[in-house]
Amino acid sequence: MTKLNEYFENKLSAQEQLEVQMWLAENGYNPDAEAQLEELFDKLHVDDEAAARAAFQQVASRLGITAEARNTTACRSRIAAWSQRIAAILIVPLLCAVCLLYATRQPEVEWFEKQVPYGEIASLTLPDGTHLHLNSGSRITYPSAFTGKERRIFVDGEIFADVAKDPHKPFIIRSGDVGIRVLGTKFNFKSYTNTDCIELLLVDGAVQFDIDTDTRKQQLRMEPGDLVLYDRVSNDINLSTFQPEHFKSFADNRAIHFFNLRMHDIALDLERLFGTRIVILDEALAQTRYFAYFTNNETLDQILSAINSDRKMKISRRDGVVYLSLK
């Protein structure tokens, strides 16, 4: 209590004043802190409550403390009430800094990481109500709360997202050199660090697809039914369309789609989905592109057989590993 008296009487060093401010900031929700302020006020004499409030308003205005900020919670209002009276008597601007600290403090944000094992899928609801489905081998990093001017997460893998609408706080996904900016929409986004192709399919709403590399900087505005394939190696962009009303993501009975995808990336996708190592023995086969769509929970053998409908590929197994080559 002695140090608190000395603080309001402006008898402390700058370091000691800071310590008292931090104590008030950390203990303002504690009834003991309020009791000590009340006890201190009882030892003072305020003849004019209106003058007290006016003095505090003048100091608060000079420090940029708005009425809205001062009334954010009942606790903050009570601390501000004692501050009004003491400020009027002692004219100690430092006290108002405590109110400013209370008004502007953001809740501490923790960052979490969720990783999905091979062969599994998972779902997640973010703090804003956005629903995410995560495909096999995916990893997402997200905060416990979205406190800033945007909602930002980090993705390595494939997600299907139903983003909660908030026109004042855009939803941002970062994945290496690419990003997506949305306000509220449904889309499928695939960006694994060990694959060359990044894929974005927009089912509903509107998004902006950002590319920010040393050799290419571009922003693409997308509409429902747009499909973007971006090649990390060549920097090529392939734009096409699909029918969103017929699209099924991996969250729908483990649906799988390969839209103009190289066999190299297809094999990596299948490895994650089925937990089976796949080795491509021919570079020509690895660079061959395929279109395929599976919606009936097909097995690995059924998928490879369908891709090999022209019978130009040899499929063999040895010691649990699948080997692919051209005939």
Automatic annotation (TrEMBL):
<feature type="domain" description="FecR protein">
    <location>
        <begin position="119"/>
        <end position="208"/>
    </location>
</feature>
<dbReference type="GO" id="GO:0016989">
    <property type="term" value="F:sigma factor antagonist activity"/>
</dbReference>
<protein>
    <submittedName>
        <fullName>Anti-sigma factor</fullName>
    </submittedName>
</protein>
<keyword id="KW-0812">Transmembrane</keyword>
<dbReference type="InterPro" id="IPR012373">
    <property type="entry name" value="Ferrdict_sens_TM"/>
</dbReference>
<keyword id="KW-1133">Transmembrane helix</keyword>
<dbReference type="Pfam" id="PF16344">
    <property type="entry name" value="FecR_C"/>
</dbReference>
<feature type="domain" description="Protein FecR C-terminal">
    <location>
        <begin position="257"/>
        <end position="322"/>
    </location>
</feature>
<dbReference type="InterPro" id="IPR006860">
    <property type="entry name" value="FecR"/>
</dbReference>
<dbReference type="Pfam" id="PF04773">
    <property type="entry name" value="FecR"/>
</dbReference>
<keyword id="KW-0472">Membrane</keyword>
<feature type="transmembrane region" description="Helical">
    <location>
        <begin position="86"/>
        <end position="104"/>
    </location>
</feature>
<dbReference type="InterPro" id="IPR032508">
    <property type="entry name" value="FecR_C"/>
</dbReference>
